[in-house]
Amino acid sequence: MNLDQAIDLYLDHIKIEKNLAPNSVESYARDIAKFRAHCAAQKIHRLKQVSGREVLEFLISLSVSKLAVRTQARNLVALRGLFKFLRAEKLMEVDPTAGLDLPRLGRKLPEVLTVDEVDRLLSAPDRSTVTGLRDAAMLELLYATGLRVTELCRLRNDAVDPQKGFLSTMGKGRKQRLVPVGQTALTVLGEYLATARPTLDRKRSSYLFLSRLAGPLTRQAFWKLIRNHGLRAGIAKHISPHSLRHSFATHLLQRGADLRAVQAMLGHADISTTQIYTHINLSHLTDVHRRHHPRGKSVRNLGEPVRSVESTPVGVRSTPGV
User: What pTM does this model have?
Assistant: First the structure.
């Protein structure tokens, strides 16, 4: 079989049968395309020509080009999925990725904002303007619910039920979940729906958040907006939409939320993914002990946290998503 045909079969499989999100399919396609280009350079075009040697040489080329270790690991994961599928379909006799280990990854904790930084960020948009009120509603909703940026941008008009205080979203794997929304976010969202959105909705769109061109706001556009608002708020940290998602989870756990409940709100299939935030909070506890206990300076960090999270000021902002 032609290598291109085999790759197309696999991409159709993860898109249709495994029902992966479009962004995930695109990510796999990009990583596999790099391997396909490597094979083409070696004049390898047939599936039966691919061996462990080609895969190993490809991984070495990634390392030589100084790609991040996580990027190298992601490329190998993509190839493992491809060849596992081809073996299951009896299109290959041997898996060329067998025996190849993933690069060792150091623990990297997500960037988390303090509650004060969150307040400054959410206050940055100019709510007297149409787009400023839209941005404020999006930021408030993102922090109140912990949505992924793609989920936020794909929200429909009827996604939020202000009476019940919940929103419905479609997450990874096309799995639908309900997430509670706090009153602060509902209030700002109500203002946006009453005044700003009608001005933007010149094409009768079914999407909740619209751009100046009356179409749905893209995740790339929102990424730029949140970084600009972060600079306006005087926040030195690198801010992305995921920063508010991470902050949402961390602040909930700091205030005693159940890990399983946070897992459900984030839409994590595996609780081990959610447990990354417990490491952040362990760092928070040791930092508080070190700063406030009479003998706190002798306390060593437990686990392997990269940094500490500052203590949460009491009464600054209501708990997100409650």
Answer: 0.61
127 and 67 in one domain? no
What per-residue string of b and e applies to 53-71 under the rule 16 or more CB within 10 Å gives b? ebbeebbeebeeeeeeeee
User: How far out from the chain centre does Cα 64 lie?
Assistant: 28
Domains held by the chain: number: 2
Question: What is the span of the domain harbouring residue 8?
Answer: 3-88
Chain segment 152-170, per-residue pLDDT in tens: 999 999 999 999 888 999 8
Measured between its terminal Cα atoms, the distance across the chain in Å is 55
Q: Residue 155 to residues 147, 149, 159, 218, 238: CA-CA distances in angstroms?
A: 10, 10, 6, 11, 26
Q: How do residues 32-51 score in pLDDT, each as one tens digit? A: 999 999 999 989 999 889 98
The residues carrying an active-site annotation are 148, 172, 242, 245, 268, 277
CA dihedral sign of residues 17, 20, 22, 23: negative
| Contact present, 219 and 149 (Cβ < 8 Å) | yes
Looking at the fold, whether 36 and 126 belong to one and the same domain comes out as: no
